[in-house]
Amino acid sequence: MSIQHTPAAQRENSPTRAAMASMAGGTLEYYDNYIYALAAALVFGHVFFPTGAGGVATLASMATFAVSYAARPVGAVLLGHVGDRFGRKRVLVTILVLMGTCTFLVGCLPAYSTIGVWAPVLLVTLRILQGISVGGETAAATVLTIEVAPPHRRAFFTSWSPNGIVGGFVLATLVFIPVSALPDERLYSWGWRIPFLLSALVTVAGFIIRAKLAESEAFVEAREENTLVKVPVLEVFRSHWGAVLRVVLCSLAFAIDTVIKVFALSFATTEYGIAESTMLWVLIVSHLGALVTQPLIASLADRVGRKPVFIAGNLGCAATLFAYFASIQARSTPLLFITGFCSVTLAYAAINATYPSFFAEMFHLRVRQTGMALGIQIGLIAAGFAPSVYLALTADDPKNWLPVAIISAVIAVAAALSAVTAKETAFTPLDQLGEPIAHTPAPDTAARPRTGTPS
């Protein structure tokens, strides 16, 4: 059954609007994620945990950040279920409101000195809800965008979702630098709250954009024709388990991002005495560059295919990380900026620009959001343990970066080899994407929509 759209509906479903909605949501999600990470490392041990606990307070504070990684697969399943059964837009708006509300409430929480143990309890609760939200964001934004994008520009339009992630990192870092410079008394009392409260502005802007979206024509047709599945996660494991496994293995490449943003930052400042401001500006400049290169690289992936670009990005990271660590050892600021550009703005940007379309195109429309989200979030759990593994590798010789670079290169090569096993989908029509469903699902009368154009 073909759905006829009015011109207004077509404007609501335009690829540009979908891409901007993806970028706005990604910026909010990862602005929130990064300011939480910075606050957990610098502030929360003092504010939300008993004073005098020393290193235990810092450890407990960092644990509140890590707990979100356990919640992400839950978010992938729950939000994927809603998106694959009831609509992508509904999930996108829900995610934005959930993350924005939780982040704002973190900025309003009383300290441990005011309400005692309820302070860390409320903090952990909000962090779990944030993790659920993050677990569904990238997949939901990518799936809606890919289903409205022109066939020959799917990678370009979906690349604006990771551009939002990069923008969130840059924005969080820029906001937190002056805040962290406040005197301790002001920082611990009210200063740390500013970045969290400012998230309300991004939330409102993102909501305005996402509220004007409509469902993709492809999803509406599937819903009208009664071909949606009742339990997407079961269908994913029944007929798309190979694609999920492939996405998990390809997602190991995200550990490279952890090496650059977390381990190398700490390594350079603590072991080689490089100023924290220098390293932060290396990261800011290289990520600002990625905002430009990622859409360009995605356009290349639309011309030559997803696989060669994704594979080249991984192999490029495997090589450039050695140069990046060598520049840290040399304490050379110019080399840091040059190798940071090569690692982040070029090599990792090729991964970041390509993975949304590459992963989403492995799945059929009926399970696309669930499958993509689940594969990414399972892979990210492994990436989340990367800093601990890297610290263990350098325990005997803290200045020896070679084992970290070697392991990172092995991870990148493994992700590239996983990509080799995938089908090239850049030139496959939308309705032919995804491994074939093994059986015809039973009619799902619950999924039948009311008459009228969805909004």
UniProtKB/TrEMBL annotation:
Protein's UniProt keywords contain Transmembrane helix: yes
InterPro entries named in the record: MFS, MFS_dom, MFS_sugar_transport-like, MFS_trans_sf, Sugar_transporter_CS
Subcellular localization(s) per the UniProt record: Cell membrane
All copies of domain Major facilitator superfamily (MFS) profile, residue ranges: 18-426
UniProt keyword list: Cell membrane, Membrane, Transmembrane, Transmembrane helix, Transport
Protein's name according to its UniProt entry: MFS family permease
Region (Disordered): 434-455
Primary residence: membrane
Bilayer-spanning residue ranges: 30-49, 91-112, 156-178, 190-209, 243-267, 279-297, 309-328, 334-351, 372-395, 401-420
Bilayer topology term: Multi-pass membrane protein
Database matches in SUPFAM superfamilies: MFS general substrate transporter (SSF103473)
Lineage, uppermost ranks: Bacteria, Bacillati, Actinomycetota, Actinomycetes, Kitasatosporales
